Amino acid sequence: MHIDLICVGQKMPSWVKTGFNEYAKRLPHLNLIEIPLRKRSKNADLARLQRQEGEQMLAAIAQGAYVIALDERGQVWNTIQLAEQFTYWMREYNTVALLVGGPEGLSTDCLQRAQQRWSLSALTLPHQLVRIVVAEQLYRAWSLINNHPYHRA
C-alpha cells in the first residue's frame, strides 16, 4: 500500500523535516506531498485561502485513493484500533491519502471528499507537528502488525 500524506505548508523548520524523515525512511511507502500555504495577512480572506488550498489538496489525491481527513471531529483511535484500520487499508486499497489542513483546518470540500475522518487528539495540534505525529503513529501501527519490537505495549 502506498500512503500519501498531503499537507498544507512548505518550508518547515528543520526539526519538522528531521522528525518526519525519521519515520518516513522506516515506512518507505509513506510519501509527503506539500501544498503551499497561502500568505496570510491582517485583512486576508481566510475562507478563500482555505478553499484554494483545499482545491490544491484535492488535485493532489491519486486516482482511486481512499481519503482520510485529519479532523478534530474525526474518530479517535488507540494504537490497537489504528493498527486494525491500517490492516484494513492495506487489504482494501492500493493508495491511501491522508489530508492535513493548514492553520484554519481543512476546507469543506476536503472534508466532504474524505471517506473517513481521524482525530489525533482532543487537543489542538499545530499543523507542522501533525505530520510527525501521523508518520510516527503509522509506523507504530505497521510495527505492531508486523511484530516489530518498536511498539512495546
From TrEMBL:
Main location: cytoplasm
Transmembrane segments: none
Keyword annotations of the record: Cytoplasm, Methyltransferase, rRNA processing, S-adenosyl-L-methionine, Transferase
Enzyme class: transferase
One MF term in the entry's GO annotations: rRNA (pseudouridine-N3-)-methyltransferase activity
Keyword rRNA processing: yes
InterPro entries in alphabetical order: Alpha/beta_knot_MTases, RlmH-like, tRNA_m1G_MTases_N
Record GO cellular component, one term: cytoplasm
EC numbers, comma separated: 2.1.1.177
Residues engaged in binding S-adenosyl-L-methionine: 70, 101, 120-125
Self-association state and partner proteins as the record states: Homodimer.
Function of the molecule: Specifically methylates the pseudouridine at position 1915 (m3Psi1915) in 23S rRNA.
PANTHER family, per the entry: METHYLTRANSFERASE, RIBOSOMAL RNA LARGE SUBUNIT METHYLTRANSFERASE H
Protein name listed in UniProt: Ribosomal RNA large subunit methyltransferase H
Species per Swiss-Prot/TrEMBL record: Candidatus Thiomargarita nelsonii
Lineage of the species this protein comes from: Bacteria, Pseudomonadati, Pseudomonadota, Gammaproteobacteria, Thiotrichales
